[in-house]
Specification:
With 787 residues, the chain is of the alpha+beta class. The chain contains 22 helices and 22 strands. The strands form four sheets. Strands 14, 15, 16, 17, 18, 19, 20, 21 and 22 form a nine-stranded mixed beta sheet that branches. The chain starts with 36 loop residues before the first helix and ends in an 11-residue tail after the last strand.
Length: 787
């Protein structure tokens, strides 16, 4: 608050305020030797009295006195310092300044009218507030000083402050206030002299230096304050409570803390907390985040839509944003205040925001200068733009610029971490290729341009252990369960028809009979859903009524409900047996393969992806781009061990079939050979870890998907048969290599010494494939020795 210059009515005398000390605005840090309101008033009064003595004219002196009085009265109204005088012990208010009244939502003059307002009544959960701890420290100060005669001058009790949250009816959101106590002189006496809560600390036996040395140890003063029995002290005097509104400062601190935490900015809870703080700090209606997604595109997140999942984030090409004032903020690396969006709708992005009711924007650029830019390119890397939106034109002011500037480093860190987590949080990333993902994450963390993760010239090793006839068996299980449920429903309706003559029940019976007849013939893909929906909507809605029609009907209804009392809300017996069988096969196949995979990684680290559905399939990639030590011997070793591992999976399946009391499906085993290399890359827009590049490599992927349905061109039978190992290849070179491996398998007792070969009937777009097949043998039982 600046004191304005005023003129005296006397033409010969001017009231000169240049000699007055300039009154500075209170800041949020009282520890930087800021004056309290009371001291400021004294200084102002002294300055005015000093001026008064310079004037002899009595009329002028009276006028100046009037000015002094008015200014002293109005001074507290303009001060930012909250001041209150409190009686210790009772914590009753004796005085409160105008700002204190306003902030706490107390009716002005309430304290002066003796309403006995207490400090602890203004703070919910007073016993757990930091302000109560601060109060105890103040009392402890005088207890130590007066009753124990300890020199507390260096313990800085008066410098302690706390930040408390204040809720007021006049404020829509909580205010953060930094409070501290001041006390020039308090007199403390014990009510019961026999009670000494500090007797265990034995201060009497300590020297003065030992007392101070003990008290300055971290946590010791707080221990004493906690032990203080306030009810055993009579306190005389007054406490001065002062405070400053540090809401903006605290909101920024909380925002920065949230932004730099390691969790992704896009996590729902974190994004919600950030969104709330930003709206409050900038008086905004919503927030946006325009994030650089690489590949020449940006993704726009709108806070309210992201939190409610109302719409997916919208993608904009970099080209479409060339003339955008939003992107301009990042290009110039300057905070941009768009006061009137209507006149700045140059691209589709701004037009869409304007249609949503946005009228003004405050844009915060998130830009990082490259750590080591390429030669000839010193351009900074744009991570994105954070923005605050308002439904009012010219909503953001000059102070918002500074607040936004303070948040830039934290926002950049948060967006950088979000980009980095695209790689570090990829699920099931294999250790053999993890190094490249971490390398790329680190590059982007430093603001370097994104690079696609590519592994070139790798050899693919693909194999499957497929449960033969699993789809047919599942359809049988579905058919069995649904028929059982329909027959239970038919039993209910037939019982009702026996008890009463109802045309509707007769029609229900006919419908159920027709459904049962149709289900006995076949089930389709959607039968599982449509049939059960029919029962729920056309039959089960009458159950409450049917139960009241007689005991026999009630028993039938209870039988139906008992059969359907499970998480599937339907008969689920045959499907349960099928699911258990599938799980059992997959579980043992997966364990067998993973045991082998552990050994194969010792040959040379390589990428391996395993999927379990109706059986298991694996995809291995090995090459110098994954591990620089790779050579031909590693490839041959891995190929041979892949064959041995699949043979062991076949043995596992054969053992399960032989040992199972329930019928169990057979498993077929196939390996696809390709001598040529392929290139794989990580596509960030798909859920797969790797895709293949190039038309030649895509052909390999097509063969993978179709080969398990391949048939012998001559016999027309499937090339894969339960209990047999099948290898699919294309060239004579591949045949020579794998014919050698099969001889090794025979020598080790894995397969029978009888191979079957043939041509595979052309698949859609694929021809020229051949196969090699052999029966897998169970291990020989050790011969028993006879004595």
């Amino acid at each position: 608050m600046q004191i304005s210059k005023q003129k005296s009515t006397d033409k010969n005398h001017k009231y000169d305020t240049k000699a007055l000390p300039e009154q500075t605005t209170a800041t949020t840090n009282y520890q930087d030797s800021e004056q309290s309101e009371q001291i400021k008033i004294e200084e102002l009064s002294q300055a005015l009295v000093s001026q008064l003595s310079q004037h002899d004219n009595q009329i002028d002196r009276l006028k100046i006195w009037k000015q002094i009085t008015e200014r002293l009265e109005n001074f507290p109204l303009h001060s930012k310092i909250l001041t209150a005088i409190i009686e210790p012990g009772s914590l009753s208010f004796k005085y409160a300044s105008h700002p204190f009244y306003e902030l706490m939502g107390i009716e002005r003059g309430a304290i002066e009218t003796q309403q006995n307002i207490k400090l602890n009544e203004l703070f919910s959960d007073w016993d757990n507030t930091e302000l109560k701890k601060l109060y105890r420290l103040q009392i402890l100060h005088w207890v130590l000083k007066q009753l124990y005669e300890i020199d507390t001058a260096n313990l800085q009790f008066q410098d302690s402050s706390v930040i408390s949250t204040v809720n007021s009816l006049k404020n829509s959101e909580p205010k953060y206030i930094e409070f501290w106590f001041c006390s020039q002189e308090l007199k403390v006496t014990r009510v019961d002299q026999k009670i000494d809560e500090f007797i265990d600390f034995n201060f009497q036996s300590m020297s003065k230096s030992e007392e101070i040395a003990w008290l300055i140890q971290p946590g010791n003063v707080e221990i004493l304050a906690q032990k203080l029995k306030l009810e055993n002290y009579q306190i005389e005097g007054l406490l001065l409570l002062e405070g400053l509104d540090v809401t903006l400062k605290e909101q920024k601190r909380k925002l920065i803390q949230l932004l730099v935490e390691p969790e992704s900015l896009m996590q729902q809870d974190k994004f919600k907390a950030i969104d709330k703080l930003l709206r409050s700090l900038f008086r905004a209606d919503d927030m946006i985040l325009l994030r650089n997604e690489g590949e020449k595109q940006y993704k726009l997140f709108i806070g309210s839509e992201f939190l409610t999942r109302a719409k997916y984030p919208k993608l904009y090409s970099t080209q479409s944003l060339q003339d955008s004032p939003i992107l301009k903020s990042a290009k110039t690396n300057q905070i941009e205040n768009i006061t009137e969006l209507e006149s700045n709708c140059r691209t589709e992005c701004e037009q869409n925001l304007f249609q949503k009711g946005v009228r003004s924007l405050l844009l915060i650029p998130l830009v990082i200068k490259p750590a080591s830019p390429k030669e000839g390119s010193g351009m900074p890397e744009i991570l994105g733009i954070a923005g605050l939106m308002s439904n009012r034109p010219s909503n953001f002011n000059v102070s918002d610029y500074q607040n936004a500037q303070d948040l830039i480093p934290a926002f950049s860190t948060a967006v950088r971490q979000t980009i980095q987590e695209r790689f570090t949080n990829i699920r099931n990333i294999h250790p053999a290729v993890e190094w490249r993902f971490l390398q790329e994450a680190e590059r982007r963390r430093w603001g370097l341009p994104a690079e696609t993760i590519v592994f070139e010239n790798v050899y693919p090793l693909y194999g499957i252990c497929d449960i033969r006839g699993s789809s047919t068996e599942r359809n049988r299980a579905i058919q069995s369960d649904i028929l059982a449920q329909f027959r239970l429903g038919l039993a209910i309706v037939e019982t009702v028809c026996q008890k009463q003559d109802s045309a509707l029940c007769e029609q229900l019976r006919q419908d159920l009979l027709e459904h049962i007849k149709s289900l006995e013939k076949r089930v389709s893909v959607n039968t599982e859903i449509t049939a059960l929906e029919y029962l729920r909507c056309r039959l089960e809605i009458y159950f409450d009524y049917f139960e009241k029609c007689g005991d026999t009907i009630k028993v039938a209804v209870e039988a139906y409900r008992a059969a359907c009392d499970n998480i599937h809300h339907g008969v689920y017996q045959a499907r349960e047996r099928y699911d258990q069988m599938l799980y059992k096969i997959n579980y043992h196949l997966q364990n067998t393969w993973e045991n082998w995979q552990t050994q194969m990684q010792l040959i040379l680290p390589h990428h391996c992806d395993l999927e379990a559905t109706d059986g298991i399939d694996h995809m291995m990639y090995v090459g110098k781009s994954i591990n620089s030590k790779f050579n031909q011997f590693h490839l041959s070793s891995l190929r041979y061990d892949q064959l041995r591992a699949i043979c062991d999976c076949a043995r596992t399946a054969l053992r399960l079939k032989a040992e199972s009391e329930e019928p169990i499906l057979g498993v077929v085993h196939l390996i696809l050979v390709q001598n040529g290399t392929i290139d794989i890359y990580h596509n960030e827009s798909t859920e797969r870890l790797f895709d293949v590049k190039g038309t030649h490599d895509i052909r390999y992927e097509i063969v993978k998907k179709r080969i398990d349905k391949g048939v012998d061109k001559e016999t027309k039978e499937r090339i894969t048969q339960p209990g047999m190992l099948t290898v699919v290849y294309s060239t004579d070179e591949e045949w020579e290599e794998y014919e050698q491996y099969f001889r090794y398998l025979v020598r080790e007792g894995w397969v029978e010494d009888k191979f079957e070969t043939g041509l595979i009937e052309p698949l859609q777009g694929i021809s020229g494939l051949r196969f090699l097949r052999a029966k897998v043998l169970l291990p020989k039982e050790p011969e028993s020795t006879q004595e």
